[in-house]
Amino acid sequence: MGVFASVNGNVVPGAEARVSVLDNGFTFGDAVYETLRTYAGRPFHLDRHLERLRASAARLGFAPPFGDEVFARRLGELLARAGNEESYIRIILTRGEGDISYRFDRVKGPTLVMVVKPFEPPPERDYAEGIAVVIASVRRNHPRALDPAIKSNNLLNNILAVREGQAQGAAETLLLNDLGEVAEGASSNVFVVKGGRATTPPLAAGILSGITRRLVLDLCRELGVPAREETLLVADLFTADEVFITSTTKEAAPVRTIDGKPVASGRPGPVHRRILQAYREYTRRHAR
Ligand SMILES: Cc1ncc(COP(=O)(O)O)c(C=O)c1O
Asked: Does 151 participate in catalysis according to the annotation?
């Protein structure tokens, strides 16, 4: 059990895994990634994550070296070697090994790294009581500068935001876009519930197309909860009946306070509860 890594197919204990210091992932942050988790030991929606990984890499002009079946086989071997009950999975694809220059023609790649470690679920209290979030002063990258739809290892925008949030004891930090509209969390998407209707910012707000976000929108339809993708302003957060965030690792986590002010009653709400239940049922079905 523990942390194991596969570097271009070589599986080793995590602490022994090595990538060249000349790798563009290291020298330029020239890389894309995905975060997955397992349910009942099986990677959850590997297909959707690989589709997004390919799309991210394509935006940067490189591509994974093989098809989904090979990813699935290699990841399966890595998970088997690690033997964790449930694993957190990070897939990193870099452009490859270069010479610390913008001479992309000299880069030998790509480099594919997969790391698995024991999955640590968020405390159940987060779901029972809700989490504290804050709104960062730093704005989400403008899509015309570095499009948040590209899930890249260039995470400094997120790190600046998270550091602000952590300094205030927040479990997640929300970012606004350049126009001051609600964009997304530093590692999550955001939903607001008002009058029984769920709203999440559109992709055009300049956000990552979250796999959990998409699933929650689909589950809302199944549950008969009206859901839409529409611009959200900060005022919508503070006048909401419920706010929750979504991500692979957090599923759907209710928000108790924003910038120290309680969301509505300060308790998780009924719409969130139904969605979380439906999400967990979905993951159980996946696990069978
Ligand atoms: C910036 C950002 N937005 C949203 C998400 C949620 O995406 P997903 O539901 O695919 O995990 C993440 C996940 O890490 C993220 O980093």
From this structure: yes
